[in-house]
Specification:
4 copies of one chain form a homotetramer.
Chain A (H helix, E strand, L loop, with lengths): L15 H5 L3 E4 L10 H13 L2 E5 L6 H7 L6 E13 L13 E11 L9 E8 L4 E10 L2 E6 L12 H14 L35
Helix pairs in contact in A: 2-3
Chain lengths: 213, 213, 213, 213
Amino acid sequence: MIRTATLDEPEHGLTQDVLDATDVLLWWGHAAHDKVDDAVVARVRQRVWDGMGLLVMHSGHMSKIFRELNGTSGKLHWREVGELERVWCVDPAHPIAAGVPEHFDIPYEEMYGEPFMIAGDAHVIFMSWFEGGEVFRSGFTLQRGFGRMFYFRPGHEAFPTFRHPEVLKVLANGIRWLRPVIDMPFSKTHRPDPLSPIAPKDFKVHNVGIVNP
Amino acid sequence: MIRTATLDEPEHGLTQDVLDATDVLLWWGHAAHDKVDDAVVARVRQRVWDGMGLLVMHSGHMSKIFRELNGTSGKLHWREVGELERVWCVDPAHPIAAGVPEHFDIPYEEMYGEPFMIAGDAHVIFMSWFEGGEVFRSGFTLQRGFGRMFYFRPGHEAFPTFRHPEVLKVLANGIRWLRPVIDMPFSKTHRPDPLSPIAPKDFKVHNVGIVNP
Amino acid sequence: MIRTATLDEPEHGLTQDVLDATDVLLWWGHAAHDKVDDAVVARVRQRVWDGMGLLVMHSGHMSKIFRELNGTSGKLHWREVGELERVWCVDPAHPIAAGVPEHFDIPYEEMYGEPFMIAGDAHVIFMSWFEGGEVFRSGFTLQRGFGRMFYFRPGHEAFPTFRHPEVLKVLANGIRWLRPVIDMPFSKTHRPDPLSPIAPKDFKVHNVGIVNP
Amino acid sequence: MIRTATLDEPEHGLTQDVLDATDVLLWWGHAAHDKVDDAVVARVRQRVWDGMGLLVMHSGHMSKIFRELNGTSGKLHWREVGELERVWCVDPAHPIAAGVPEHFDIPYEEMYGEPFMIAGDAHVIFMSWFEGGEVFRSGFTLQRGFGRMFYFRPGHEAFPTFRHPEVLKVLANGIRWLRPVIDMPFSKTHRPDPLSPIAPKDFKVHNVGIVNP
């Protein structure tokens, strides 16, 4: 089942009930990132930690959720003249690349250029070449907690990118790959009894001050 | 020069001026993580992205700044009975391990146990064995933007851990390694002119609606 | 279908035909690593690069194939007194951890201790605690070319480790996860024609000597 | 002190004595990779594991040493027409990028294209854009054992690339960064006595056959 949720809805349509029933969330945003409520972002982030998949598209690189999962600013350089983007697959063995050719062209796109401020464990699957002279890590995955994220760059609102067959294939593969492997909260942080014997110590824990054995 | 900053000070003592003059910030916190102001946390995070080093100690794994740089919950399991912790060095070639033996013992410490919810690019330098039966990734580094973070686990407030010579050596090495390599903001996100010629396209960018070439 | 192949067979039973028909290869070896023929190792390595899964067990950490895929020596420290090994799962969301509890005990095992000389992209799923005081990264995955490797530590020949239900579960999960995603040689290294126009240059390529434009 | 060593010398000029006295080794090779003696390659690899730095240039991606340290085939696609290469810096905070601009152009170079078969822990510092339409991970580091490797792509023998000021700056930075942090063999694999007490077990280790407790 596919639902939509928009900024204008109460809680942006992302209530706890909706999120709890969501396996994979697709996120597209552009000019209104700072209008997204922090509490909703925290809720989405918790769901990713619990196992929900998250697919962030295009300008979503500046969304709060993208930045908080990367731990970075998400910044990059950009140009909006409608130039050729050629997408290269650098990890053909990844399930998200299944059936995708070595490269494919998107005739008109916005340019995003490096350096792209993302986490060091970004597993890069796609890299883009732009007609005007830049390169970009256009598709990468992250794991955060029990959940996975996939970022895919193409998708400017002024071009028919989301009708491009290879783009659609990547997104479909991404959604399939993002389905939760496990979907449950981190086991309640507990104070386990020792599993192995602990030798007697010559002090008392929990006295005031620093122990001076 | 060494300064201190505490929760009770205005802006927790971490004003923009103080942070701008800081190369490496050490962070220790325990029960009051949620009393730390979000605006101050955002300011510290920005300084890390610009190049400042950050050394997070012990219970700082639940601080807002640790969680936001990892993109994870920072959760773990724990036990506070004052048991033996043996710290193993798993990357002897790292500058933070310089002069540190293959392993060293801390006779009384709090236990932290796996799974530890941290980022996938955590470069693990130290791993701990606990008398009661657990293991833990006790020392690791991250890069976020232009800055570096080092997390080091030992340091419970009830024990004289910060007088342990090997612990002090690791912290000193950490501070040295965390000094900024470069320290400047990410170049203003710009819209560069094309570096290479872009062929004429048969549409106008910036018309309303999706281009249908 | 399951086959076996042993050192004493011609080509150790790992002919090109057998390997071509193999999805996942399990490797156990101990005292005779240097008796394994280099040509056979190169053949196995090529099959991993083409997509075959490889599960290396226990003392296989010193096999030629393990060392060549890691690019490291595979060294570690060890003790053979039959002590308790407690295996902790540090990535419960990984398919290889499916159904495996937070930790399980193997009552008698050989000890392997850190530092373990493995590749930096080892994705660690299991870590072990040993009764005598050591820790170890006991289960990790690597990708090399189109294929995947999984290393799992337990399995000393003097103990009934391979009858332990959790060990068997991990191995079964590992085999399932190692099945090839794609299984084909890297596309013949080709000299593609330019995809985008290359401006005329004022020199001739392939003259003798360094071009001095 | 700088020395040279060539294929035609005995042991290719890389005797044990020479290597033991080497902090950083630069490797350039092209057509004769398979003429390099396996024993010499094993010796170089061991020195990297012990701490020696290794800088591999251009077509060295198909050298035995590059492939053995990556654990991969080192393959890529290529074209030799003398086209523009634009090198982008994607990690400006890395010491190897010190003083290097956001991008620089090499007017005539051979093209190398993705997918580039390298290890997953390649830390990418430079990425290249080629006039004919390809992208490439042109500069990356690896750690193997106690030593570091840096690969840098530019350097085709038919062009004056090694006179390009930015290329020379990258190489100089690389050499500086590759100097050993520690330089010693991995501690002799030992059989340590237990550090913590091991409970008596009800079997004898080293009997013939599998213990059946």
